[in-house]
Design brief:
This protein has about 425 residues and is α/β, with parallel strands linked by helices. About 25% of the residues lie in helices and about 30% in strands. Helix 1 packs across helix 7.
Length: about 425
């Protein structure tokens, strides 16, 4: 496990999914909406945290409603926010994203009303523990000073920089990092359509650095300073792109993780680049970042996204022959799950995704629609109807990031049985 500091921006992404991109001056209903954290460096740290690295974020955080939501979500993901700079004014950066389900493309509208992390805030961070510092190429005058300071300090640490788009005074950043990640949009913005030509030119700007250029569905290209030869790793065919948001950030996370696991610093970067590209390919085939660190053999599909459940809600999941086999229940911040089997006669409580809850005075309970049996939510005990003294069978679940997963380890299953003796 490495200790990684990311310096950049934390945003709230409000994502509206549509079946096709709307035309101008038109009206369209969104198929789904999600609210999750964003920002390039923040996304990269979110993925790296899944590989059990200690990930700290240095960003400006505010205390408005969206700012508090950002901090809550990042803390849930295990990011260390102690290096961030909290202020009592301004609005959290927000990105409004329209995600086209038909092809996975996205259009983003940013709203920014917050100062960037500056040199004064950076000077308060103790850089001694960190193995890797990853910077986002923004607020370039101060970022150049931060890079210079980190470079001048004693100790062995890697400095990396992401360049996504053109910024004023960007050239001041190039002389300090060990690794620079460029986006395709940046290269094309400088009128390069050939990755090799771009990296050859970029090598003149930063002759000391390993240069990596993601090129979307064409894979990635990189150049190592000792030989200055541009190398290429093609991408694999993807049948259907689901969500391309954060694919470049995932590529970077994969490369950083793989490189940190290579004990010989003189090893070439081919393995690291391949790991990053393959991880990004997995990312674009799913919604969000959860579960990327799992292997293909062990990766479990989520039961649902947290946003699929309201503050007092129940949802039928895992359909078998069209009938949900489990019921997820949310009350406030508490999540529970039960088998969709009534202990009275073994029938499902309901055969639909919704319709499981009933109001009982100041409380809510689960209700079987067949014979009107009621069950309290704490342990699934029957409180009304034809099966007194029985319980619904609890199912162990876990929350990873913003998704709910089945946690079907033998230990968890035995514990669930012990806590529900009547099941």
């Amino acid at each position: 496990m490495a200790i990684i500091l990311g310096i950049g921006i934390a945003t709230l992404d409000i994502i509206n999914e549509v079946d096709h991109y709307p035309s101008e001056d038109s009206e369209q209903r969104a198929l789904a909406q999600r609210r999750r954290t964003g920002g390039n460096v923040t996304n990269t740290l979110t993925v790296l945290r899944q590989f059990n690295h200690h990930c700290a974020l240095a960003a400006v955080l505010t205390q408005d409603t969206n700012g508090q939501l950002i901090q809550e979500k990042l803390s849930q993901r295990g990011l260390d926010l102690s290096s961030s700079h909290r202020i009592g004014f301004g609005h959290a950066p927000t990105s409004y994203i329209t995600l086209n389900r038909s092809n996975g493309s996205r259009t983003i509208l940013h709203y920014r009303d917050l100062p960037e992390l500056d040199l004064n805030a950076f000077l308060k961070i103790d850089l001694t523990p960190f193995d890797w510092l990853h910077f986002e190429g923004r607020h370039c005058m101060d970022t150049a000073a931060m890079l210079a300071l980190a470079r001048s300090m004693s100790g062995t640490r890697t400095l990396s920089l992401e360049i996504e788009k053109e910024r004023p005074f960007l050239a001041q950043l190039f002389t300090f990092p060990d690794v620079i990640f460029f986006s395709r949009a940046f290269a094309e913005g400088r009128n390069f359509t050939d990755p090799e030509a771009f990296l050859t030119q970029a090598h003149r700007w930063a002759p000391q650095a390993v240069l990596v250029l993601g090129w979307g569905d064409a894979g990635a290209h990189w150049l190592e300073p000792q030989n200055a030869i541009v190398q290429t790793l093609p991408s694999q065919p993807i049948a259907h792109v689901v969500d391309s948001i954060g694919a470049g950030d995932t590529l970077i996370a994969g490369i950083i993780h793989a490189r940190l696991h290579q004990t010989d610093p003189h090893t070439d970067w081919s393995h690291a680049v391949e790991f990053g590209v393959r991880l990004a390919e997995r990312k674009i085939q799913q919604i969000g970042f959860d579960g990327l660190a799992q292997t293909e053999d062990t990766a479990a599909k989520p039961l649902c996204h947290l946003d699929d459940l309201g503050p007092a809600d129940a949802l039928g999941v895992l359909p078998v022959n069209g009938v949900p086999s489990m019921i997820l229940v949310r009350t406030g911040k508490t999540l529970r799950a039960f088998r969709n089997v009534c202990p009275h006669n073994g029938s499902p409580l309901a055969k639909t995704q919704r319709g499981y809850l009933v109001n009982k005075l100041d409380d809510i309970e689960l209700r079987c629609a067949v014979h009107n049996a009621h069950f309290e939510l704490a342990a699934g005990a029957c409180t009304q109807g034809p099966c007194p003294g029985t319980h619904l069978q609890a199912v162990p679940i876990r929350v990873t990031g913003e998704h709910v997963f089945l946690d079907a380890t033998p230990e968890k299953q035995e514990r669930a049985k012990a806590e529900n003796p009547g099941a």
